[in-house]
Amino acid sequence: MDDVLVVETLRKEFGGLIAVNDVDFTVPRESIVSLIGPNGAGKTTFFNMLTGMYPATSGRILFEGTDVTHKPPHAITALGVGRTFQNIRLFEQMTALENVLVGMHARLKGGIVTSIVGLPRVRREEREARKRARELLHFSGLRGRDDDLARNLPYGDQRRLEVARALATNPKLLLLDEPTAGMNPQETAAFTGFVGKLRSEEKLTVLLIEHDMRVVMGISDRVTVLDYGEKIAEGSPQEVQTDERVIEAYLGRGAA
Amino acid sequence: MSEGSSTEQPSRARHPRGGTFDFITGPWQRIPERVRGWLPLAIVLAIALLYPYMVSDLKSLSTIGDFFPELDSAVYILVFTMMALGLNIVVGYSGLLDLGYVAFYAAGAYTAGWLASGQFQQVSFHFGSVGIQRDTEGIHVSVWLVLLIAGSFTAIVGILIGLPTLRLRGDYLAIVTLGFGEIIPQVVRNGDSFGGFNVTNGTFGINPIDSPGFGDSLNDAVGLPVNFQQSFDKFRLFYWGILALLLITVFCSWRLRDSRLGRAWIAIREDETAAAAMGVPLMRTKTWAYAIGAFFGGVAGAYYASFKSGAFPSDFYFNISVFLLCMVILGGMGSIWGVLAGGLMLSWLNIQGLAVIGDKFNEASGRNFEIAKYQFGIYGTIIVLMMLFRPTGLIPERRRKRELEEGVHDETFFDVSH
Questions:
Q1: E strands, B184-312, in order
Q2: A222-227 and A230-235 as β-strands: parallel, antiparallel, unpaired?
Q3: Element (H, E) at B62
Q4: C-alpha–C-alpha distance, residues B377 and B370, integer Å
Q5: Cβ neighbours of A75 in B, within 8 Å
Q6: Which of A202, A206, A204 is nearest to A218 (CA)?
Q7: Which residue of A has its CA nearest to B291?
Q8: Most buried residue, A168, B36, B210, B317, by CB count within 10 Å?
Q9: Is the CB of B256 less than 8 angstroms away from the CB of A151?
Q10: Is pLDDT of A224 > 90?
Q11: Reported CATH class of domain A3-80+171-251
Q12: Residue B137 placed within a domain
């Protein structure tokens, strides 16, 4: 099978603590893969390494065949990895539209002098970028919120804006870090549908960290379970659900 | 604009440009939106352009006449406002606290000193210079060109300072820039013998520095002045010159703010990590902020050196960096209109306002109180009052203002990935 992302024996140590312990991992094209595990299992650390925020201690990350292990975050984003954050990190004092436009940074070309002079080429690019940004806001369910400051949006809309902004980077692989945290069941259901739509309509590959098991079991093609930085199980949702080590990690020894 | 009215009062009656805004808040809302955007610009521009013709009439007014700046003071005011706008790109847009902006001022002034004076007697190089004998020693490049070179050279200085320092965040960056702001004047002060070669002429500084002008041929053809310094209209010419430079700075600030790069700067100010994750290259983008901020500081410094016909190390002290930062904070970080207002107001207070206010006070009370001695105490008080009553500045950045009007939940997210 064709893999978008290949991770080979990836390891991250913080001093004496091993946050991610030699994890092998692959994400097939146009699949939805979930990364689950108890709190502190190393899921977000894993994400941060994939996006270049943390340097890996050892191991290798291949995205579309390119070694991105030691690339800076902006370069990895430019290659086609978009992400959202567990704790919403919008540009709070920018409007929803501007947030999405920042996501397009790597795709746009407007330079300093050309922007000051206002070359027709730059103006056209800017117009098209705004149009595309509006479409993305629409697509993400943020109709009519274009000119609202990000920090004034309700919580659910802030989550949507995070996704819209990540989509603006034009990713091939979208990393979602607990996207449904704090959502009510209706919002969660709507979001699950939205992620499905991303794959079917946008041909995106999605990797998500998620705690809500209904979401995980509902949309994932494959589930990987981390515990204390180690991969303890991997497989279809059904396989993982019945895996003894997983139940043990979540519920403690003897529960299985 | 109600809560801050007490602190804005001083600017209102006494300042021809900064205070225009407050007059019109009432009927303001009735003006159509399209006109509203351009009207203040047009009014301020007209007043600014015609000021040289009005100044003598204005100054002969009883009581308030003394508050209007003479043209040479006006040049100083506009030079510092231009630098404040340059600093605004670094501090206001990109959120990089720079306490060493004076270094850029010095770099610009000394570039003018090197390229348009008799400093380097070893050579005799003339290029487009006006009002100077062909056989004069030293490098004499046209001052217009020198402005551009000074800006570019200062931008390079900005990049060189930026490369090692911009990896730091927040307070650490402020401390290191503070250091550079101290180092450069010291280098300049002691630069009269780099391996026996006199680069900066030490404490004596470089003077005279050439003047801008258009030369004989343009004078014959369209009547443009040959040389500003030797003209009867010297101050008017220098005033219009700096006004043009200031307008260019405003224009560039405005266009950059709404450009791809401007958005990236503001994104970095808001959240560096998220900006990087959205594909904004942090180092490159921040370095550009430094370079462009420095560019305007350099041009302003070079122009001012040409106006004063000299560059002296005693001009480049730390308090100028703080003074410029005060202008940005007072006006409203990131707000072009705000920084214009803050810059005009503070530099006016500094060169003239405080002294006049002191005189008026002494006249009225019969005391002998030298208010100008307390200038930094007064600026400090202004900043404290601003922080208490109007922390977003006189004219807040559009987005910040909106946030205040709408009211927001004050929520901080704890983030483990930092």
A1: none
A2: antiparallel
A3: none
A4: 13
A5: 281
A6: A206
A7: A112
A8: B210
A9: no
A10: yes
A11: alpha beta
A12: yes
User: Which residue, among B152, B82, B48, has the nearest Cα to B336 in the 3D structure?
Assistant: B82
Provide the 3-class DSSP secondary structure of residue A80.
Answer: coil
Residues of A within 8 A of B261 (CB-CB) are: 110-112, 115
With an 8 Å Cβ cutoff, are B279 and A48 in contact?
Answer: no
Give CATH 3.40.50.300 domain extents, chain A.
3-80+171-251
Encode pLDDT of B339-395 as tens digits: 999 999 999 999 988 888 888 888 888 888 788 788 888 888 888 888 888 888 888
Which of left, alpha, beta for B195 (phi over 0: left; psi -120 to 50: alpha)?
A: left
Domain count, chain B: 1
Q: Are A203 and A30 in contact (CB under 8 A)?
A: yes
Range of the domain at B327: 5-406
User: Do A115 and B260 count as a contact with CB atoms less than 8 A apart?
Assistant: yes
- Kindly report the CA angle at B71 between B69 and B75, in degrees rounded to 5? 100
- Yes or no, beta carbons of A94 and B256 under 8 Å apart: no
Residues of chain B contacting A, Cβ within 8 Å? 251-252, 255-256, 259-264, 266-267, 270-271, 273-282, 288, 292, 399-400, 402-403, 406, 408-409, 413-417
Mean pLDDT for chain A overall: 91
B124 occurs within a structural domain: yes
The beta-carbon neighbor of B274 closest among A52, A75, A85 is: A85
In a domain, B418, yes or no: no
Interchain pair A44, B252: CB under 8 A: no
**Closest CA of chain A from B383, distance in Å:** 23
- DSSP code per residue over B11-48: HHHH-TTTTHHHHTHHHHTTS-HHHHHHHHHHHHHHHH
B86/B83 Cα distance (integer angstroms): 5
Of B255, B264, B408, which has the smallest distance from its Cβ to A105's Cβ?
A: B264
Give the gyration radius of chain B's Cα atoms.
22
Three-state DSSP at A227 gives: strand
Contact B266 A93 (CB under 8 A): yes
Q: What ipTM score was computed for the predicted complex, to two decimals?
A: 0.92
Whole-angstrom CA distances from A9 to A20, A232, A233, B173 are: 9, 14, 15, 37
Q: Is the distance from CB of B210 to CB of B216 less than 8 angstroms?
A: no
Please tell me whether residue A4 adopts helix, strand or coil conformation: strand
Q: Is the C-alpha dihedral spanning B344, B84, B323, B239 positive or negative? A: negative
Check A151 against B413: CB less than 8 A apart.
no
∠ at Cα B278 (B277, B280), nearest 5°? 95
Q: How far away is chain A from the Cα of B75, in angstroms, using its nearest Cα?
A: 25
Cβ <8 Å between A92 and B288: no
Residues β-bridged to residue A17: A14
Instruction: Tell me if B373 is assigned to some domain.
Output: yes
Exposure of B333 in the CB half-sphere (CA atoms within 13 A):
22
Contact A140, A164 (CB under 8 A): yes
3-state helix, strand, coil in chain B (%, to 5): 70, 5, 30
Q: Closest Cα partner for A168 from A248, A80, A85?
A: A80
Please give the backbone phi and psi of residue A193, each rounded to the nearest 5 degrees, phi first: -60, -40
Through-space distance between the first and last CA atoms of chain B, rounded to whole angstroms: 38
- Sign, CA torsion A160/A164/A167/A169: negative
Q: What is the pLDDT of residues B156-210, one digit of tens each?
A: 999 998 888 888 877 898 899 999 888 888 888 888 888 888 888 888 889 889 8
Q: With bands split at pLDDT 50, 70 and 90, how would you rate the model's confidence at A158?
A: very high
Residue B61 DSSP code? S
